[in-house]
Description:
The complex is a heterodimer of chains A (116) and B (114). Helices cover 0% and strands 50% of the residues of chain A. With 116 residues, chain A is an all-beta fold. In chain A, the strands form 2 sheets. In chain A, strands 2, 4, 5, 6, 9, 10 and 11 form a 7-stranded mixed β-sheet that branches. A 4-stranded antiparallel β-sheet of chain A has the order 1-3-8-7, with no helix packed on it. Chain B is mainly beta and 114 residues long. The relative contact order of chain B is 0.34. The interface between A and B is medium-sized, with 23 and 26 residues.
Amino acid sequence: xxxxxxxxxxxxxxxxxxxxxxxxxxxxxxxxxxxxxxxxxxxxxxxxxxxxxxxxxxxxxxxxxxxxxxxxxxxxxxxxxxxxxxxxxxxxxxxxxxxxxxxxxxxxxxxxxxxx
Amino acid sequence: xxxxxxxxxxxxxxxxxxxxxxxxxxxxxxxxxxxxxxxxxxxxxxxxxxxxxxxxxxxxxxxxxxxxxxxxxxxxxxxxxxxxxxxxxxxxxxxxxxxxxxxxxxxxxxxxxx
Lengths: 116, 114
């Protein structure tokens, strides 16, 4: 059981380039998330999805796009990379149950992106 | 907007010392509370969680946390730390009013000296 798999682990981009961070989960979780982690700032939610075909903005969505065509995959796209997008990106998933409302996340290993 | 505050950015202590990390959240009605840990070079892992019931919850590796509703706090404790507890610790809260999305605190880096 692989859990949440992210690729690539590391990437260096030039300003203005575009790229896609891939995220796949094999736990049949409905909910998927993209966070960015910056030193001293904790994790900030970029986008999330409650199921295939449904996505919504989090706290810091500007400069990013997502899609959710299947339950398993939730790619994050950067269209015009900027230095402010230098960060560590984490994908996560959860199986939010209606009864408990409890949201336990399983995280991927992270993708470190540097924009120069 | 809902927010989560962690009191210390960095904590340095020696092995066998006691650890307490503070976490406070803004008022938001019904909440679920979590502590996640990120060991060096690893991804975030769940340390413990509180949904309901006994406000003193026990997690893995000897950690515990106490939910004090009147203080909007969920402090993490460990009576005697080990070098292997060196990590970054994140408090997280899901607010029912915000659709149960997790809001993270800024994290506390803990360094345990051998």
